Structure formats: C-alpha cells, structure tokens
Amino acid sequence: MKVGVLGAGTMGAGIAQVAAQSGHKVVLVDVNEKAIEIAKSKLSKIIARLVEKEKWTEDFGSAVLGRINFSTQMEDFEGSGLIIEAIVENIEVKHGVFSKLESIVDEQCILASNTSSLSIAAIGSVLKNPSRVIGIHFFNPAPLMPLVEIIPAVQTDEHITEQARNIVDSWKKVTVLAKDTPGFIVNRVARPFYGEALRIYEEGIADFATIDWAMTALGGFRMGPFTLMDYIGNDINYTVTESVFKAFYYDPRYKPSFTQKRHAEAGYLGRKSGRGYFDYSENATAIDP
Ligand code: NAI
C-alpha cells in the first residue's frame, strides 16, 4: 500500500521514515520546496547514521530512502491507501487540504491527521465522506517513540478505525484508542507539566535550569519541562496549549503562559531555532532571560 504524508516538517519526515522502513512506498509532500530539501537531507543523514552504527545494513538504508518520493504536488498522492496530514496546527488550513485530498485520492483511502489538539470531527466535517477521517497521533521523534494514539471521530466508520490501527500496529508501534477530545490522552496529561513549570518560573520560585534539574535529578523524569518544550518547539507547544484551553471552554487549568508566548514570538522556538529557554548554539551558555 502506498502511503502519503502531507507536511515534511519535524513530524511528517519522521512518519515518512516509519512507513518506508515498514516497506511502504511513501510520497512526502510539502508546499514549501525548502522544507522538502531539509527533510531529504535530514532523512539521508539519519539513515546514514543508522547504517554507520550497524543498526541497518547499507542495502536496507538505501531501500528505505528509495521508497520515499519527495514532492510539492498533492496530486502525487493519487493511488494511496492512507494519507497522514502533519501540517500547521490550524483548522482552516487543514480544512483546505482535506477538501483537496478528497478530490485526489479514491474512496478507499483513509484520511488521517496527526493533529495534537484539534477536533478530528471538525477536520472531517469538510469531507463529502467523513466516515474515513481519523486521528493518527505520533509523538516526537516519530521513529523512536513507540506510542501512537488512534482517534476516531464521531463520523468515523469502525472498519476505518480497525484498519488504521492494524496498519500502525504493523509498523511496530503501540497503539492506544482515544476519544476525540482536546489533547486526547498524552497532550492533555502533559499540559499541567508544562503549565505549572511555567507558572513556577513566572512566580519567581526557580529558574528554567533549576526546575528541569529538580524534575530530572529528583523527580526521575527523562527530560525537564523546559528541555522538553525546547525539543517540541515553543511555537507548536504554545499553539497546542492555546487550542486545548479554548476547547475546554477556557478552563484556567489549561491557561497558556505569556513567558512561552513571548519566547515563540521572539523566535526562541527551541532546538530547531538554536535558542529557546536554553541556548543550543555552538558557544552555548545557559540562558535565563
Ligand atoms: P513543522 O512546522 O515542523 O512542519 C509543518 C510543515 O507543514 C512545514 O514544513 C510546512 O511547510 C508544511 N505545510 C504547512 N502548510 C502546508 C500545506 N497547506 N500543505 C503542505 N504542507 C504544508 O510542524 P510539526 O512539528 O511537524 O507539526 C505538524 C503537525 O503535527 C501539527 O498538527 C502538530 O500539532 C502535530 N504534532 C507535532 C508534534 C511535535 O512534537 N512537534 C508531536 C505530535 C503532533
């Protein structure tokens, strides 16, 4: 089965790798030519490293890369059995692409979104046949994180849910069914982890590095909340928090933070921009603005 992935950013490139290493022909599409170039070079480097570390043979590595076609044209999705959308977290933009997808692929194709926080029912509402919409939510980095949430919308046919789950299970992932509610399971549980850490900082109780140290050295977490937000991207993480906050009728438990908003606005997005709560540049020294 041919798999289409829309959006060649952090998540899309990882999902394309997962599908290709499981034997699928993959088409990875992005509107942005530069994003395609970055994804291509990132995937080549990751695969070369896996071969170098002898986790993959050279033949397997080149076969995986050879199975991924990079494109800027959604029309290249024609003939796919599953499309996973991983573009910006914006319902209007997602509506536009889902309507277009329906005109390209045939009736049997499953149309999935990797959204972290938007309603799958709302995404599917623009489709002529919304029974084939589903949430397939990976975690970052997709090739390494075993868990995938499968989120049927109220419109989703149960055979589509079963089929989608079987496909992702065959990719050696651990799937969990979640209801179509804001943040599903993991992102909802994670909101207070970030939110309280930001509030602790804003109340002047401790700085970023101290909070992270306490949570890792004392709390046993693998990453502290600020390191994790820098890993995810402050723009993405902020948008998800805002979306969950709105979706829960402005419940103050999920209130977004100005500290994070300002970091995102300043372009302090985290690792991907070289600076977030911490400095990732070559001459890095700890930052605590
Ligand atoms: P990203 O910003 O790294 O990549 C998004 C890509 O989509 C960009 O390359 C952009 O050029 C492309 N794009 C935007 N509009 C497009 C369109 N109309 N058609 C085709 N391509 C388009 O974003 P990221 O982090 O990969 O997130 C993508 C989705 O995955 C979002 O819905 C996000 O909530 C979700 N997600 C993100 C996670 C993370 O840790 N970053 C984890 C799990 C889900």
TrEMBL record:
<feature type="domain" description="3-hydroxyacyl-CoA dehydrogenase NAD binding">
    <location>
        <begin position="2"/>
        <end position="181"/>
    </location>
</feature>
<keyword id="KW-0560">Oxidoreductase</keyword>
<comment type="similarity">
    <text>Belongs to the 3-hydroxyacyl-CoA dehydrogenase family.</text>
</comment>
<feature type="domain" description="3-hydroxyacyl-CoA dehydrogenase C-terminal">
    <location>
        <begin position="183"/>
        <end position="280"/>
    </location>
</feature>
<dbReference type="GO" id="GO:0016616">
    <property type="term" value="F:oxidoreductase activity, acting on the CH-OH group of donors, NAD or NADP as acceptor"/>
</dbReference>
<protein>
    <submittedName>
        <fullName>3-hydroxybutyryl-CoA dehydrogenase</fullName>
    </submittedName>
</protein>
<dbReference type="GO" id="GO:0006631">
    <property type="term" value="P:fatty acid metabolic process"/>
</dbReference>
<dbReference type="GO" id="GO:0070403">
    <property type="term" value="F:NAD+ binding"/>
</dbReference>
